[in-house]
Amino acid sequence: MIRHRPAGSGHPYSVDTEQRWPVVPEAGATATLGVRADATVDAVSVELVWRPDAGTAASQELPLERVATTSRGRVTDGGHLASAQARLARAVGGWQATTPELRTGGEYRYRFTATHEDGRVERTRWFAFRAAAWRAADDAVTVSGRSRVVSGSVSVLDDGVRIHRARFALPLAPGEHLTGFGERYDAIDHTGTELDAVVFEQYKSQGAERKTYLPMPFAHVVGGSGWGFHVDTSRRVWFDLGASDAGTIAVEAETGEDGALPVRFFDGDPLTVLSGFLDGAGRAEELPDWVFRLWASGNEWNTQAEVMRQMDLHREHDIPVGSVVIEAWSDESTFTAFRDARYAVTEDGAPHALADFTFPADGAWPDPKGMADELHARDIRLHLWQIPLLKMRPHPEGQAAADARAAIADDVLIAEPTPSGGTRPYRNRGWWFPLALMPDLTDERAARWWTEKRRYLVEEVGVDGFKTDGGEHAWGAELVYLDGRRGDEKNSTFPVAYAAAYGDLLRSAGKAPVTFSRAGFTGSQAHGAFWAGDENSTWDAFRWSMNAGLSAASCGIVYWGWDIAGFSGDIPDPELYLRATAASVFVPIMQYHSEFNHHRTPSRDRTPWNIAERTGDERVLPVFRSLTKLRERLVPYLAASAADTVRTDRPLMRPLFFDHPDAPEVWTATQWMLGEDLLVAPVLEPGVDSWPVALPAGEWTDVWTGETVTGGRTVRVEAPIDRVPVFARAGAPADLLAVFRP
User: Fold this and answer.
1) Distance (Å, rounded) from C-alpha 157 to C-alpha 355?
2) End-to-end Cα distance, the chain
3) Per-residue pLDDT tens for 527-584?
4) Could you give the CA distance from residue 225 to residue 271 in angstroms, rounded to a whole number?
5) Rounded Cα distance, 228 and 208, in Å
6) What is the C-alpha to C-alpha distance for residues 342 and 324, in angstroms, rounded to an integer?
7) What DSSP line would sit under 275-325, residue for residue?
8) Which of 26, 268, 467, 628 is the most exposed place for a label (fewest CB within 10 A)?
9) HEC secondary structure over 544-564
10) Main-chain phi, psi angles of 267, to 5 degrees
11) Spans of the chain below 50 pLDDT
């Protein structure tokens, strides 16, 4: 076997051994041409033919050298997703060659020849590319608003047949700070760095890796007169934010064949800039008050009995809970039927109704509707986990097989090109559910086909929302969507459409469109709630997650949360757990969750009773209870503040630069305004009993002591384990202050 994929797997941060790199080579440089071959191959060569647009063709043969095999990125630390990645390793070898310096004005064709140990010769088909070169193109960037594009900075990467990218420069003045860019973990201020905008599943350590599930090519430029910009594309964008030249923002983006790149500019303070962006991106829809109560989840809650046991423990320990998210509810193949349910297969993939199912009394879920009814009687909402894939490993049987056949017959899948020029269903290239089929949820007809299979869950079982996980599985610029557009343009829009499709299902059943998503892009603002994704239980992850929430809020994400103290690995220590819980009281979505751990003991659940039992720390349960009850008392304030946010665009979890853009401390202190009246300064380090709070100018009241403090300075306040430093703005309502001293 010998394999070459010119564009590789589509992993945005990994170059595969068997691909061409760069995918679009540049004139004056070289390209790497690689294959992956099985162990019987002794030698590989590539025949490279240069065919100028005018002139005589010339060819040469280049030997390939053995190299280490790389494919789809690698993860070095543990966890179930990392293990899945490790299993993708193949007992095959890599071979690569480097071309001579490339020229413009023609086409390169190449094919590989492999010689096996037994003398067999194997050849690939012919592949082709044109080397591209940058040229000036002032008209490539189309501007709305007051342009700040540096004169003469616009150029395009042109191979003589089509344009692949455009780039331009913007001025960056001394004292200006760059922030926004979607959900970003490493920092709030990105001045002096480089980053990109592409949806990617970064499993843990997002802050260290500087990658994100929810990017947006939108920036606030804070300082001076204030402005911002949005590279109005769903294709990948790269930013050099003063890293190479302190006075320049350099932007490069993939484009369509014509090279056109629209850019929107906004002038004014951060709120004006955000409102201008949201005029095009869309705004949040107000969600019901109950989303502000505690959300509870554990990946190993895989039976009705276990879910209800955990809810009983909430009641036993007097810890209020408003939502339960069940991840491990389904048969793990259709993701539409409860595990152990008995039913007749619909061979045409038609949806089921609740009456079609029989639930064995000794099964995992003997009475899903009864469970939902009991949860509702306790004022707890029910959310079920989803994945936008048709699982194909192991080989599907029963309804899963029928659904796969129907999806192909009904033409509702994302496709990929074939070597013969046709298309075939795209098979997931990621490490999670590899080779699964993927419905094109950006298409209205396909989205209805998909969500109708879940309608009985909403209308008959009584499900209140969905955890719309895993929206990052569309890899490859060459993918073909049902509207004919390609993956380079559509892949990042997929998670937006995914949440929208489930929101539409809920809305059509008369329910609020409560989805809980990890991935997103420009446009996600209008679709439900979000959490910060998969993280370890570390102080670094705590800090990174607070950055993520603030940067997402600066881009118009209203309903945002994270897994309290992280969900992966061994449990957090009591101090981290309680500090993280205290901070989470003051973020829009408060929820705990834990990763699958193969039901090993001791349990890694992030419930307060498990943390208390595992650590022996007697503070955990009473402090968690107190904090959760404080959160319950804050729900009316949060709901009213969210309604104000939806009306005015003023972020609910608001970075301080919105109100104080000229204050230098807003870039160094991890603090925020929650609604109009509360300033929150979470304790983000272990082993402290006091914490510095950068108080903006004005009069402030310490909500815990009632003391009035004059701002415009940094004050150090007591920070016992059961509370987070919070100050109320002068003039805050008395009933809000009373929430903290019941």
Assistant:
1) 59
2) 72
3) 999 999 999 999 999 999 999 999 999 999 999 999 999 999 999 999 999 999 999 9
4) 13
5) 26
6) 25
7) HHHHHHH--PPPPPGGGGSPEEE-TT--SHHHHHHHHHHHHHTT----EEE
8) 268
9) HHHHHHHHHHHCCCCCEEEEC
10) -110, 140
11) 75-91
Q: Which one of 534, 595, 676, 677 is the catalytic residue? A: 534
pLDDT of residue 82: 42
- Scored b (16 or more CB within 10 A) or e, 29-64 reads ebbbbbbbbeeebeebbbebbbeeeeeeeeeeebeb
What six digits make up the tokens of 339?
Answer: 């595990």
- Token match 């003398």: residue? 119
Identity at 709, one-letter amino acid code? V
pTM of the model: 0.96
Q: What is the pLDDT of residue 81?
A: 46
Q: Evaluate the CA torsion angle 425, 428, 429, 433 in order and state its sign.
A: negative
Vertex 413 angle, CA 409 and 414, to 5°: 145
> Residue 28 in contact with residue 101, Cβ under 8 Å?
yes
Q: Kindly state the DSSP code that residue 225 receives in the 8-state scheme.
A: T
User: Is 699 annotated in the active site?
Assistant: no
Position 175 scores a pLDDT of 96
Amino acid identity, residue 543? R
Report the amino acid identity of residue 13. Answer: Y
pLDDT at position 78 is 34
Q: Give the model's pLDDT for residue 92.
A: 64
**For residue 9, what is the DSSP state?**
T
Q: β-strand 323-326 against 381-386: which pairing, if any?
A: parallel
Cβ–Cβ < 8 Å for 72, 16: yes
Rg (CA), the chain: 27
Q: Where are the beta strands (DSSP E) in 298-404?
A: 323-326, 381-386
> Across the chain, how many H-helices and E-strands are there?
15, 39
Rounded Cα distance between 714 and 695, Å, is 6
Taking the C-alpha atoms of residue 625 and residue 618, their distance in angstroms, rounded to an integer, is 12
Q: How far apart are CA 459 and CA 511, in angstroms?
A: 9
Query: Among residues 472, 563, 595, 702, which one is catalytic?
Result: 472
Could you give the CA distance from residue 521 to residue 688 in angstroms, rounded to a whole number? Answer: 38
Long-range contacts of 502-506 (CB under 8 A, 24+ apart): 502/386, 502/451, 502/454, 502/466, 502/468, 502/528, 503/527, 503/528, 504/447, 504/451, 505/451, 505/454, 505/455, 505/458, 506/458, 506/465, 506/466
pLDDT at 736 (0 to 100): 98
Other residues' Cβ atoms within 10 Å of the Cβ of residue 277: 27
- 254 annotated active-site: no
Decide: helix, strand or coil at residue 210.
coil
Which stretch of DSSP H or E encloses residue 390? none
Cα–Cα distance measured from residue 237 to residue 230, given in angstroms and rounded to the nearest whole number: 11
Three-state secondary structure along 682-705?
A: CCCCCCCCEEEEEECCCEEEECCC
Per-residue pLDDT of 620-639, as tens digits, reads: 999 999 999 999 999 999 99
Among all chains, which residue has been given the structure tokens 């109100």? 659
Q: Strand pairing of 653-655 and 141-144?
A: unpaired
171 cis-preceded (ω within 30 degrees of 0)? no
Token pair, residue 292, equals: 């502000």
Q: pLDDT at position 562, please?
A: 98
- Omega before 692 within 30 of 0, i.e. cis: no
Residue 707 contacts by C-beta under 8 Å, 6 or more apart in sequence?
A: 701
489: nearest Cα among 521, 451, 516: 521
Element (H, E) at 47: strand 41-52
Exposed/middle/buried for 379, CB within 10 Å: 0-12, 13-18, 19+?
Answer: exposed
Among 678, 688, 683, residue whose Cα is nearest residue 656: 678
Unique residue bearing structure tokens 């595990």: 339
| H or E element at residue 269 | none
Told to judge if 101 belongs to the known catalytic residues of this protein, a careful annotator would answer no
Tokens of residue 85, six digits? 């990645």
